[in-house]
Amino acid sequence: MTRHGTDLASFLPGLLHAFLVLSATLLGAIWFMSPVGLGFASWPDQEISREKAHLIFSISYFIGLPALVIGQLLSIVVIFKARPKIALAISAGTFGGFLSLMFLFFCSMP
């Protein structure tokens, strides 16, 4: 305990939340610009694989990206209402869901 009655452990959820929000913001911006880079990418040769990769990318771009942004903004509102654990769960959940969509997409690419 410090003189003010707080210790480092009470700040860790807030620091982790800030890291998640900043990471999600950076990753969301990169993914938002990804169609430019994917135009030059080599897509799978088989039509079924190509359609699967395109479907996963579309889901991550049109559903996952807005969910990521809304989840991070919601978690910021919740943390200011003195609910750091709930805010951390919202932030980590949306970030993890978006990362799993990205992982599925990259696994479907050659």
Q: Which keywords apply here?
A:
81% helix; 4 helices; mainly alpha; 110 residues
Tell me the layout of helices and strands.
Blueprint: H1 8-32, H2 34-38, H3 47-80, H4 84-108
Helix pairs in contact: 1-3, 1-4, 3-4
Q: Total strand count, please?
A: 0
Rg is: 18 Å
Helix fraction?
A: over 70%
Computed structural class = mainly alpha
Question: What is the string of SSEs from the N terminus onward?
Answer: HHHH
Count the DSSP helices: 4
Average pLDDT metric = 84
The termini sit apart by: 53 Å
Short overview:
The protein has about 110 residues and is mainly α.
Structure description:
This protein has helices at residues 8-32, 34-38, 47-80, 84-108. Helix 1 (8-32) packs antiparallel against helix 3 and helix 3 runs antiparallel to helix 4. The chain is elongated. The longest helix is centred in the middle third of the chain and has 34 residues, at 47-80. The chain starts with 7 loop residues before the first helix and ends with a helix. It has 110 residues and is an all-alpha fold.
